[in-house]
Amino acid sequence: MARLTRVESQAQTRQKLLDAARDMFSRDGYAATSIDRIADAAGFSKGAVYSNFAGKEAIFLEVLEALGQASLDPLLEAIDTASGADAVVELLVAWADDRSQSGNWSLTILEHARTADLDTQSLERQREILRSHWRQLGEKLVGKFAGVSAEPETLGALMHELAYAPAMTFVSRPRAGDLVRLSLKAILA
Length: 189
Prior knowledge:
The protein is mainly α. Helices cover about 75% and strands about 0% of the residues. It has two domains: about 1-55, Homeodomain-like (Arc Repressor Mutant, subunit A, Orthogonal Bundle), CATH 1.10.10; about 55-189, Tetracycline Repressor, domain 2 (Orthogonal Bundle).
C-alpha cells in the first residue's frame, strides 16, 4: 500500500476530526464538547485540532455548514424532479419528519448562539450559514410553487424552523411534517 502524502495525511486527519466533532456536537451539545474531547475521540492530540482549525467555534461552524448542506442537497435534487406542487409538499413533509429526528442538533445550534458573543464573527458566520440554507430551499420552492409571493429566504426559513424546531425532537404528535403540510396548504391556497 502506498504511503500517504503530507497533504493526503492532513486531509485525512482533518476529516477524522470533523467526524468526531460532528458526533460529539450532535450527541453532547456545544458546551459539553471540547477541543480535548474532539481530539481524543479522533485519536489525535489537541495540537492536531489547532493545526487544522482556529478553535472550537471554527470546527463547529464547519460541521454546521456540512451537515446542513448534506441534508439539503438531496432534497433540492428531489424537488427539481418532482412532478408538481403536491409532490414537492410531500418531499418537504418527509424531509421535515426526518430532520426533526436528528437528535440534539437544533439545540446545539441554539446553544452556540446563546454562548457566543453577540457581535462575534462566529455568530455572524452561523447566521450566514443558516441564511444560505434558507435561501437555497426558498428559491427552489418559489420556483416550483407558481404564484407564491413569499420572499425565498423567508419561505426557506419557515421550512427549516418547522423541521428543526427543538420541541419536534421529543414529541410524537404533531410531527414536523404535519406542521409543514399545514403551513404549505395555507401558503398555496
